[in-house]
Amino acid sequence: MAVRPIRITGDPVLHTPALPVTEIDDDIRELVVDMVETMHAAPGVGLAAPQVGVGLRIFVWSWTDEDGVLHEGTAINPELLMAPLPLGELDEDEESEGCLSIPGERFPLRRSPVAVLRATGLDGAPFELRADGWLARIFQHEYDHLDGVLYADRLAHPHDKAVAKAIKKKSWGNPGKSWMPGVDDLDA
After folding, report:
1. Contact indicator for 185, 10 with CB cutoff of 8 Å
2. Model's pTM, two decimal places?
3. How far apart are CA 168 and CA 23, in angstroms?
4. Which end of the chain is more exposed for a tag (fewer CB within 10 A), N or C?
5. Could you report the per-residue pLDDT of 45-85, keeping only the tens digit for each?
6. Are 90 and 155 in contact (CB under 8 A)?
7. Residues belonging to the active site
8. Long-range Cβ contact pairs of 104-108 (< 8 A, separation 24 or more)
9. β-bridge partners, 157
């Protein structure tokens, strides 16, 4: 097990659609263990393989809801079905999210309140999971990473301008930038 560096926006692996996993072998199992350790060290509630520099369709999640129930797992070659987006004004407190690949920044983004995840688990068995609320948001965020989309790419005005300014100020947006959870002093 090892914590891996997390790529920062601008790295090509984050902006390129990931490839399907063709076989769940020891390399994939080791990658997933490392991803979980990296996610916890960051700390985060989800992490996609492209964020650690691996262009494969895998993400992991670990989140404890308000009732103390732990939701965690691994999605390999996922499909995600979503309910339509609700209308209305964004709630900057309830709808803000961040990203370990844009550490320390948070902006409001409308996500579907319900999502159905269909994927293969690390054991090779297919599964389907319905998610509501924050877990649905996590699934949508991580799934976007597999398509080469960061949440900043989906932000509406004026938040799109604010994230672009933050990225420029921190000299991100170029290939080769990363940070190491537990080592680098970032406000992720």
Report:
1. no
2. 0.94
3. 39
4. N
5. 999 999 999 999 999 999 999 999 999 999 999 999 998 88
6. no
7. 142
8. 104/186, 104/187, 104/188, 105/152, 105/163, 105/166, 107/151, 107/152, 107/155, 107/159, 107/162, 107/163, 108/159
9. none
